[in-house]
Amino acid sequence: MDTVDENHLGMTKPANFQDMGNRRALRDIRNLVGAPPYPRQVGKRGLTEFLTSSSKNRIDDKNLTFEGRRPITRKFSASLANKSQLYHQETGGGHELVGIDRQKKPAPSVLSLNSLGTCTAARDVDDHKSVNELPLPMVVETEEMDNSDLKEVEMEDLVLIPDIDSCDSKNPLAVVDYVEDIYNFYRQTEIAGCVNPNYMSNQFDINEKMRAILIDWLIEVHYKFELMNQTLFLTVNIIDRFLAKQTVNRKKLQLVGVTAMLLACKYEEVSVPVVEDLILISDRAYTREEVLQMESLMVDTLQFNMSVPTPYVFMRRFLKAAQSDKQLEFLSFFIIELGLVEYQMLKFRPSLLAAAAVFTAHCTLKGFKHWSRTSELHTSYSEDQLLECSRLMVDFHQKAGNGKLTGVHRKYSTFKFGYAAKAEPALFLLDSRS
């Protein structure tokens, strides 16, 4: 027999039956006429004939839908079984429902529905019983079901989520086939990147005001180095997770900040700032050796875990669900970066922060509450769930240009970011407090 050449597939002649020895051809292996059917399996046609003949024309064939017009859910099957039992009790029928024995343990139902929508006989039915002797649990009163019950059965498991990824179906970087699974994973693991919102109580030499000063300064450094947005969010996350586990002297707090940015750059950026640049930007307050020692301490404390979902990853998805333009995008990032500075925002999950920022930006631009059904389904947050966080963001927006910490306001007051900071805050959200 000729061998197969992987580089010239199809060039060899097929093996004949003499070369096959005692092996049977595929068509002879119980897949043609003569092969015994699967035991105790009733085909769709046979089952329909059985039901119509047993019920003496009381069941309309239109009610026996196995192809999706009338879904047979657990609730539907249970209601049919109960109605059938009541029917037999009232009429004194000669047949007793299989599986209803008051003195014995319940047996499996006579008919079961598999995933393909075809009915098969239960395994516990005795072989000597013929098909005509099987009791009929689906006896009938499907026509008497009112329309409200029908709608409840059909819609109980149906949730339509608008497709926002069809426009990226040909973009391999959008990973349309896996994007929902990716964000489901983010939602399941985002709690791992959260910290105790009261961790400052364990610090003896620093407080939340010092943290706010540090992050406001790092936002300016991030802007000056022209780093990516995800780098900023990861930097803040690393700082909080480290401070939640390690006490720090106030003189070392700025060192923690620049080292966290160095780590975030190594994780996110293509071109990483060198250590000397970070030393220079911190006015040479630290040496190269101190930065490297702090880097070693931080990655050891965090157990090298840099892969945590930050608000940024949810912002990209939620802005897409909101069908955002540049104006909405800039304003949303302005609002959420104001929240990065504030210590009290640590009590909210990253996904909630992102959703609240998009919601607040929508309300700011439109002048009224606006949260579309598409955004609600993709974020899994309703308008009521976002109001608490959104009201805090409006308060930060109102005070952004005042005080000493104005780094975010100055950043988003430029042409590059569409003068987003100059938008009027949605003060009506504060007035609607219940």
TrEMBL record:
Q: Which InterPro entries match?
A: Cyclin (IPR039361), Cyclin-like_dom (IPR013763), Cyclin-like_sf (IPR036915), Cyclin_A/B-like (IPR046965), Cyclin_C-dom (IPR004367), Cyclin_N (IPR006671), Cyclins_cyclin-box (IPR048258)
The source organism is: Phoenix dactylifera (Date palm)
Domain annotation Cyclin-like: ranges: 216-300, 313-395
In this chain the Cyclin C-terminal domain maps to 309-426
Q: Is Cell cycle one of the keywords UniProt gives this record? A: yes
Keyword terms of this UniProt record = Cell cycle, Cell division, Cyclin
Keyword Cell division included in the entry's annotation: yes
**Domain of life (superkingdom):** Eukaryota
The record's annotation in Gene3D superfamilies points to: Cyclin-like
What Pfam families does the entry give?
Cyclin_C, Cyclin_N
* GO biological processes: cell division; mitotic cell cycle phase transition; response to gamma radiation
**What does the sequence similarity comment in the record state about its family?**
Belongs to the cyclin family. Cyclin AB subfamily.
Q: What is this protein called?
A: G2/mitotic-specific cyclin-2-like
Q: Which GO terms describe its molecular function?
A: cyclin-dependent protein serine/threonine kinase regulator activity
